[in-house]
Amino acid sequence: MSEDARARRLYRWLGPAIVLVIAAVLRLWNLAAAHDLMNQFDETYYVKDAWTLLNLGYEASWPPGANDSFLAGDVNVFTTDPAFVVHPPLGKWIIALGMAVLGPGSGWGWRITTALLGIASVLVLMLIAKRLTRSTTFAVVAGLLMAVDGLAISMSRIALLDTSLTFFVLLAFLFVLRDRERTMARIAETVAARYGGDAPPSWGPVLWNRPWIIAAGAALGAASAVKWSGAWVLAGLGLYLVVTDALARRRAGVLFWPTDAVRQGLATFTLLVPVAIAVYLASWTGWLVTDRGYDRHSGGNALESLWLYHVAMYKSTAGIISGHSYASPAWQWPLLWRPTGVYYHNDAQGVNGCTAPSGCVDVISTMPNPLAWYAGVAAVLYLAYRFVVVRDWRHALVLTGIAVTYVPWLFLPERTIFQFYTVLILPFMLLALTFALKDIAGSPSADRYRRLTGQRLVLVFLAVALALSAFWYPIISAMTVPYDFWHLHMWSDSWV
């Protein structure tokens, strides 16, 4: 093996490895800094629900003052009465796993699994980017942007459900991408073999041997078992598979390609959806095998009771329209109008070692890197334009990711929702941004001056983005900083 080949091989491993180390340090360092349950947001519910799941198999109620008792180390004050919850249990089981290993005594126990899935999401994003861009460098760029992004970091450092949801959705997209790599060629080869002279075949193959679709179904079942918004991704990716199969059959020359796509669509549905449903139902095992879960005996049997419970959950979530100081409808999200502050603690000078005249604060804000965010919004529009012009399937996959994670929220203008939900959209925005940066860097066929200029622009962009991430890190990680330093970050009144 030549010296250049060895260097390239080392870079293929070392570049992503360095990004993962950066992601791990930023997510794991001082993870328990905020010894709180974020009672303004749902960490207060998910942690205690997870602990009762671990102990009882179902979510149970807690007495008044339970947060203070839990934080003081008295974690077993829960009752055996069932609690009504509005999210499926898998995300809470994931939180419970960390407490089972590290104990519930600090944020390390109830946040570690979320942090690990946040790190794993960076890895999966790089795997997707490598296959889409065919470049280790730009896979590293995509991973680095997510590794240092404030939204991705902050949501990995608190025990909410959205990072777990993001991991499973990214995993499903990776599996669909793997399926495409093997399926498109199989369709073309099979159809070509069926040609009778110049006459195209009437029908193409119905492909059942698609293990990556089954894997994607399992991942999307897990996503839906974390939050129901995973079902939107299941529907959207299912539609994407049907459309791409149809177009592949048309390109291959199948005469009745629309009908042929319907035949394959039924097979794809059979491969994708039942396994998703099975995984989703499996997440309810604790509720099904115990007798005291909420609404456990509301129906004639366990499955009917589970259905009635889901009806109650749906009615409850559909009615969440109460005001909240950090509420932000989906149309505001691209503008970054109202980032969510999930934790804020302040001390006056002289209290708890604070020496700043203005006082000190510990803050966790789910604030994305502002440069990468706004550039990502612009890149999504650019990618949509490029798709119209060149019809690149890679652009279509990224735009599908944007559509299934963002568009459904636009149809819920009255719901109380928050900017931090965009952590699920963020990886696809960063993929769009990676494509845009790759185009700016220039193609290998461009002249030297064009390539050099483009690469310098990309390096400047990345340097500024990294500097901004370093500037914002203290106020997304609950570091103790002077109040004036925190206020320097409030570039808009709507961010306060």
From TrEMBL:
Pathway: Protein modification; protein glycosylation. Residues 303-495 form the Protein O-mannosyl-transferase C-terminal four TM domain. Its main location: membrane. It is an enzyme of class 2 (transferase). The chain crosses the membrane at residues 12-29, 108-129, 136-153, 159-177, 269-289, 371-389, 396-412, 418-437, 457-476. It is found in: Cell membrane; Endomembrane system. It is a multi-pass membrane protein. Keywords: Cell membrane, Glycosyltransferase, Membrane, Transferase, Transmembrane, Transmembrane helix. The keyword NADP does not apply. InterPro entries: ArnT-like_N, PMT-like, PMT_4TMC. Pfam families: PMT, PMT_4TMC. Its EC number is 2.4.1.-. Residues 18-282 form the ArnT-like N-terminal domain. Protein O-mannosyltransferase that catalyzes the transfer of a single mannose residue from a polyprenol phospho-mannosyl lipidic donor to the hydroxyl group of selected serine and threonine residues in acceptor proteins. Belongs to the glycosyltransferase 39 family. This is Polyprenol-phosphate-mannose--protein mannosyltransferase. The lineage of its organism: Bacteria, Bacillati, Actinomycetota, Actinomycetes, Micrococcales.
